[in-house]
Amino acid sequence: MSLVLGPVLRHVGETTAQVWVQTSAAATVTVLGSSTRTFEVAGHHFALVAVTGLRPDARTPYTVEVDGERVWPLPSSPYPQSVIPTRGPKTAGRAQLVFGSCRYTKVADRRLSRQLGIDALDAYSARMARAPVDEWPEALLLLGDQVYADELTPQHRRRVATRGDRHPDWPDDEIVGFDEYVGLYADAWSDPEIRWILSTVPTAMIFDDHDVRDDWNTSAAWRDEMRATSWWQTRIRSALASYWVFQHLGNLSPEALAADPDWQRLREHDGDAWPLLEALADRADAVIDSATDGAKGVRFSFRWDVGRTRIVMIDSRNGRILDDGQHLMLGDGEFDWIEQQVSAFGEVDHLVLGTSLPWLLPHAISELETVNEIAAGKPGRRGQLAERVRQAADLEHWAAFRTSFDRLTALIARAASGGVASVSVLSGDVHHSYAAKAEPADAEPGAAPVHQLVCSPVHNKLQWFVPIGFRAAWSRLATRLTDSWATRAGAQPKRVTWTKIAGPFFGNTIATLRLDGRSAAAVFEQPVTAASLVERTRLELAP
After folding, report:
1. Do 84 and 133 touch, CB atoms closer than 8 A?
2. CB-CB contact of 208 with 426 (8 Å)
3. Among 42, 106, 382, 512, which has the minimal tally of Cβ within 10 Å of its Cβ?
4. Model's pTM, two decimal places?
5. Are 394 and 421 in contact (CB under 8 A)?
């Protein structure tokens, strides 16, 4: 009996924690006296251990036992012992939130490794291991592209090529089956530095397109194109089922898990639960507006409260409404749920919204996306051309869903006027990092400062055209030209203005949002060695 992957420390409350593991066979997993049996999916075994009875305001060291045998920490581990950091009255006003997106797995191929550069999260983890425990962050927010199912490493290509059970219609350079996704996550999370930091920092995750496939749910035309292939149904089932197991489950609080009918069905199921996950994935893919369709839908958005900081993570991929002529980032029911989480503040000093796709892009790209959405809605060749441009240029962020953009902007304006000290929107995806200060037109005088903070990539190649394109897109000339173009195309003025205050930074980056009382600050860092980083900027967001 062995530990295959993990432990991954997920949701942590004042006295509770969720610890996720994968084991080599069915077993009982124990953490700090709390035990659970594994569940089986397609021949693989997983457990989400609900640890209870923890002391608030403490960092409690822990070990993992599988059938009574200690399997974590690993023998001769060079890292400090993993701990569970609970919140409480003493620490409620402070939070360090580390965030980033787009982390490609480390590779053995030297040429590709040089192109990818130093993994920023690896370097952060190595530095953190040398720091005092009380300086460790309270949460790690992974904002999409935790795995790349459509851009395989050389070692994963070889693994796929040697499988004798692959269907001949499956693409040979992409992941399709659930077993292949299991191998993908193993590659991503087995790196020693990553495995340790995931074991000791509560980690929240949300997907982006590459967790499934590039441009996932860009438009109705894209969905129709994928559905026409012989392998897409297997792919989307495998992608969503593996996401639910590896990423989504641990996002949920004990209360949310207790209320989740899919989790309850799985816990009551005897035997391999793949049929349940297959049905769940079909519902998640087919029923988009989860919150309006009762028990049939699957909501991947979630909420964490870290002391007096509220984190609302928004599913901006699977929650889209793309049928019947609609083009929405989120359905009305899902958006209603988001608004409820944002409005029910209580004693909250800071609001953090996580969305894999930026709300505020370079102005020129934002206006281009709005114009493209208008054109793609036209009949005939003009609409078809706009659709081809949309897919080729990845014009699929919030500004490309103008109705949803406007609703999110209004939500943020209300939140900023509701008594919090700051509102921060954390995003990734766009392979450059920056900070922008926003001024929502409908925010009340004296409203809290609002910022868009983007950190991308954590570990990926820098293509030559990216710096050229994004620097041009941030320029004043491009802004004036695209503003004029959007007006002529019939786009209504956006109810928010924004100014870039840091960046753009190119290359692998990790960012930290530091919250202390009513103050907020952000730091962007880039790796210089495998164990050190250099600070690119430090911003006072709410002095």
Report:
1. no
2. no
3. 382
4. 0.96
5. no
